[in-house]
Design goal:
The protein has 2 helices and 10 strands; from the N terminus they run βββαββββαβββ. It is mostly beta strands. The longest helix is centred in the C-terminal third of the chain and has 7 residues.
């Protein structure tokens, strides 16, 4: 059987703009605050790229294997995020948004997972739940 990962549907809102995308729930993406990495296309839909809002920070992140890459980080408060499940909407969470050129999917940090109450039950099988779900309620990853 093919290994899966946990992906959830996420709605990002900024002023009068809104976009839904699928995000990888990655507990290995450590951050000090709720953060989401997004591809350039998602940032464009929110009118956050290529013209960055005031306060944006150009930074370098280190990925798996030690590779470093340039990112554009927007502080919390610019974007609100929700997790969209079949039976509920979790959020809003004020989230830091990091634009990563070349990235092809959104990625939620460990602190974002905590803020949404996402518990990875069996990540290799794509199974998860909200922390306040009944113990027997297991959710499945959404397709990429």
């Amino acid at each position: 059987m093919k290994s899966l990962v946990v992906r959830v549907r996420v709605r990002l809102e900024r002023e009068d703009k809104q976009v839904e995308t699928v995000a990888l729930a990655n507990a290995g993406f450590e951050s000090d605050e709720p953060e989401i990495i997004v591809p350039v296309e998602v940032a464009r839909e929110l009118n956050l790229y290529p013209r960055l809002p005031g306060g944006a920070i150009i930074d370098r992140y280190r990925g798996a294997g030690g590779r470093t890459f340039r990112v554009y980080r927007l502080s919390r408060g610019i974007v609100r995020a929700y997790v969209v499940a079949e039976d509920r909407l979790a959020g809003p969470v004020s989230i830091a948004l990091t634009i990563v050129p070349g990235e092809d999917e959104a990625i939620l940090s460990d602190q974002a997972l905590d803020s949404f109450g996402i518990v990875l039950v069996r990540p290799g099988k794509g199974l998860w739940r909200f922390i306040d779900d009944p113990a027997d309620k297991i959710r499945e990853s959404v397709p990429r």
